[in-house]
Amino acid sequence: MVEMRVLILDEVRDRPSLAAAKALVMSGWTVGIAGAERSLAARSKACAAWHPIVPPERGDDAFVESVEEVVRSHGYETVLPGYEPAIVALSARRERLAFPLGYGAHEGILAAIDKWRLVSLAQAAGLDVPRTVPASADRLAELDGPVVIKSASPRDLRVGAAVFTDRTAALAHADTIMTRGGHPIAQGLLDGRLDAVSLVAGPDGIVSIAQQVAEQCWPRPVGVTARGRTVPIDSGLRAAIERLLGALGWQGLAQLQFLVAADGRPRLIDFNPRFYGSLALAVRAGANHPDTWARLTTGRPVTPSEGRPGARYQWFSRDLRASLTGSDSIRETVRCLTMCPVAAHTLLSLRDPVLAPMFLLEQAVRHTSRRVRPRPVDAVASARLHGVGRVTRCSRASHPARAAVARAGRPAHRDEAGNAHLRRPPAGPPPKCTERCAGTGRRRGAEVTCGSTSSRITRGGTTIPDSATTLRRGFTRSWRTPESAT
Predict the structure, then answer these.
(1) Where in the chain is the domain with CATH 3.40.50.20?
(2) Which residues make up the CATH 3.30.1490 domain(s) of the chain?
(3) The CATH number of domain 190-366 is 3.30.1490.20
(4) CATH assignment of 131-188, among 3.30.420, 2.30.30, 3.30.1490, 2.40.50
(5) Between the CA atoms of 89, 91, 95 and 100, what dihedral angle is there, to the nearest 10 degrees?
(6) Sign of the torsion formed by the C-alpha atoms of 223, 365, 81 and 282
(7) Pairing mode, strands 447-449 and 252-260
(8) How far is CA 125 from CA 69, 118, 259, in A?
(9) Of 86, 108, 128, 242, which has the most beta carbons under 10 Å away?
(10) Do the beta carbons of residue 64 and residue 55 sit within 8 Å?
(11) How far apart are CA 453 and CA 480, in angstroms?
């Protein structure tokens, strides 16, 4: 029997790459993982070998050469890239590759990951989309209520999507995206259920498909599936998706995410051309997308598959957090705990029991290190977002609430090391939260840290701007003026 060998390109996207590796091993593939650093997926039992490669940030040509060297040296039949920069770099140089690439036309890839171009293509195919405009001052006025500011393409920068009720803060975030060479867009924030359709398309159309709905998402209001289940394929939605894939000339793996509002109409919000977080759900439902994709790419015969309804998936730690902070916390927590033994998981596994504790430990270390010594990217984003003219290295000064006090006119000083610090505010009661907090609020100096805080803060005769709301490190923080608070 000929050994089937496939290489996954991983960018420390632990869960999607891990789910793909497990699905491939289930179908008899020998899986190697390549990346700039060893990820959790590379340390799992599903990984036969890990190979260091040059990241795309050091140059696309150097990246592609390092991938080709790994393929030649270790006999891999094909490569499945797990992140957009790798997909674009390989696709643009596919004529010189020594292995087949499982994607369609390069122009279709660029259109799919460009959210601005995707909007018009989706509408032409009969798919509804949220109202989308360029993130400029005049166009933002066209959108009512909260808005989502995001980059049109995730290819060249790492600035996450953020939700704003204050247009000044929204424009500051858009400026951050433009500073990094991106093109910011704005969409109206929809309140609804997160649905998704995942598929693998070949030259003649869809070969493997599954549809899912999210029962819990975390973080709120813009999060990923923490608990989900498969449902029957919507024939009308599938037909519209096929028209979109035809317009893109799409081949390979894709996941399309939708928000279903109160009117029941699904609106396309994202197109993922790579492995995604809840991939284990489609595999549990009988649609093994990674195996189908690898077989199509290597010219092997495939059997069309459709995910059966009723399969369950859970990201336990996030499901538990969402359940504990929901409106019906007792019932949802019970459902979370009873779902755990029967649902598909990416990390929880009796065959690989150390993965989940290892993942949680690494997440705790990352979170702690960011709190103690934030990265320059975090400090810059926070300063731009909250209107601070001077970016400091002090984590207390870069915290949004302390930055708000700085805007209100509090002086600063520098310590012996040259780091800027904000002076402690006058003694007094902490700002009062006027809404239910999703987390536990605590006061540290002038800081108010909670899951969703609306506070009345006035310092030095200046009131903090109305409703500055952001998403940062999984928390939502908002401040409201005394006049606007109810």
Answers:
(1) 4-101
(2) 131-188
(3) no
(4) 3.30.1490
(5) 120
(6) negative
(7) unpaired
(8) 41, 10, 17
(9) 86
(10) no
(11) 9
Half-sphere exposure (CA, 13 Å, Cβ side) for 485? 20
Residues of each domain in the chain carrying CATH 3.30.470.20:
190-366
Q: Which CATH architecture has domain 4-101?
A: 3-Layer(aba) Sandwich (3.40)
Exposed e or buried b per residue across 243-271, where buried means at least 16 C-beta atoms within 10 angstroms of its C-beta: bbbebbbbbbbbbbbbbbeeeeebbbbbb
In the numeric block, which tokens belong to residue 229?
């289940």
For 124-163, the pLDDT digits (tens) are: 999 999 999 999 999 998 998 899 999 988 665 567 788 8
Structure tokens at 371: 């709190």
Write out pLDDT tens, residues 285-300.
Answer: 999 999 999 999 999 9
Q: How far is CA 65 from CA 97, 117, 353, in A?
A: 9, 30, 36
User: What's the whole-model pTM score?
Assistant: 0.75
Sign of the Cα torsion 285, 291, 297, 301 reads negative
Cβ atoms of 232 and 307 closer than 8 Å: no
Residue 147: enclosing H or E segment and its boundaries? strand 147-151
